[in-house]
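Structure first, sequence second, as always.
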């Protein structure tokens, strides 16, 4: 009886120790490798190469006539017709400050007239509130992206909206006071314009074109005509120069709507083809993607000379010259996943067969080879299921993949929950 009781106690103790060991192992495993899940999503990856080049345009420098101070009438990138006034030259050092005062008065008169016409309509005030918020959002978006090309325009627009909002919420019922204020501002404006006209000289556009207030010195060094015969060595030597801005220039006119980008690309295996349009990504002084046609490609030594042309975005790029861009050769569309989500499963197959028939193993003694399958495990309801994928692109932080069988009912899709890490993953495993 005692022996039976002792044996029972030993068996119970062993069973308890086994249960405790199992629970401890499960706890340690789950603690070290918890189930981590994320979402897959659609993604487009630009594949290309970096290029350094120079923007080439048909340009005419606008000289001044001895004036010490230049005030541009047209904005950067604005179109000018032949004979149109593009700049004012002043000999009086106080003229630039007076010109700034004139612009402020013109803006204030416009805002006062707007307030006089608007009255105190609540609907108008609400609309202005929405415009102010929209301007702030657009300005925040530009700064977040690092795109400062239109920063001045957006800032001036926000300032105007704020002024109009203040006047709308003010005592606009006193219309007579507003009219008197407008008349006073106009009198000041006429007086300043009269004084400046006596010390100013006007520069007119000799022909039609796009105006730029900067003449950087490259205008006389390279022109579109040279691009037909220029070599890679000549372009490299040219881009090493640092020309001084044209002395005394009041700006320039770009007289042809077609402009060019002459670029040097490392290597000769670029796959570029003439008469094809490529997207060039600018990310320095100008932020954006511009489609450009490849006019000429030349393989020289260990680099490639490429001449691109474009008929758009001229007004956006008047201040650009030597630039580093990304030439997009191909756009890959697939599903983006973290690197941890991709698993490689190896299968042994008979030599010469792409895959075993009916999933059977090769016959003993027959030549075999190893085949790798790229797998992504997704969560379907509460179980893990493997989806075979094709690897399209590899990055330091992610993979771009697509399903091997894109017509399968159960395939990897954007929005699927994918498993990043868990131990002993297999089809049908309950993961939650």
């Amino acid at each position: 009886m005692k022996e039976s009781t002792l044996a029972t106690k030993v068996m119970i103790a062993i069973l308890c120790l086994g249960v405790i060991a199992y629970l401890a192992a499960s706890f340690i495993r789950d603690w070290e490798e918890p189930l981590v899940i994320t979402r897959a999503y659609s993604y487009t990856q630009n594949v290309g190469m970096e290029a350094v080049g120079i923007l080439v345009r048909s340009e005419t420098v606008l000289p001044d006539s001895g004036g010490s101070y230049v005030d541009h009438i047209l904005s950067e990138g604005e179109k000018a017709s032949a004979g149109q006034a593009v700049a004012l030259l002043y000999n009086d050092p106080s003229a630039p400050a007076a010109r700034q005062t004139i612009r402020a008065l013109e803006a204030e008169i416009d805002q006062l007239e707007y307030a006089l016409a608007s009255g105190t309509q609540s609907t108008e005030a609400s609309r202005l509130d929405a415009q102010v918020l929209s301007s702030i959002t657009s300005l925040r978006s530009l700064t977040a992206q690092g795109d400062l090309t239109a920063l001045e325009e957006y800032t001036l627009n926000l300032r105007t909206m704020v002024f109009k909002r203040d006047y709308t919420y003010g005592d606009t019922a006193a219309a007579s006071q507003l009219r008197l204020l407008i008349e006073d501002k106009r009198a000041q404006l006429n007086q300043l314009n009269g004084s400046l006209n006596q010390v100013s000289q006007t520069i007119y556009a000799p022909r039609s074109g796009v105006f730029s207030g900067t003449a950087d010195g490259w205008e006389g060094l390279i022109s579109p005509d040279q691009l037909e015969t220029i070599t890679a060595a000549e372009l490299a030597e040219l881009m090493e120069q640092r020309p001084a801005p044209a002395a005394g220039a009041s700006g320039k006119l770009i007289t042809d709507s077609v402009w060019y980008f002459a670029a040097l690309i490392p290597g000769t295996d670029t796959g570029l083809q003439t008469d094809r349009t490529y997207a060039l990504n600018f990310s320095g002084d100008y932020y954006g993607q511009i489609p450009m046609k490849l006019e000429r490609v030349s393989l020289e030594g260990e680099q490639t000379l490429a001449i691109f042309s474009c008929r758009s975005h001229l007004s956006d790029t008047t201040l650009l010259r030597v630039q580093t861009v990304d030439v997009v050769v191909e756009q890959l569309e697939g599903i983006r996943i973290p690197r941890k989500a991709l698993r490689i499963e190896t299968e042994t197959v008979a030599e010469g067969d792409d895959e075993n028939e009916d999933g059977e193993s090769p016959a003993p003694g027959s030549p075999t080879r190893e085949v790798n399958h790229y797998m992504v495990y997704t969560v379907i309801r509460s179980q893990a299921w493997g989806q075979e994928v094709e690897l399209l692109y590899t990055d330091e932080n992610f993979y771009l993949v697509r399903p091997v069988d894109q017509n399968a009912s159960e395939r990897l899709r954007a929005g699927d929950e994918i498993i990043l890490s868990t131990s002993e993953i297999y089809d049908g495993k309950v993961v939650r």
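Margin note: Residues 2-32 form the longest helix (31 residues).
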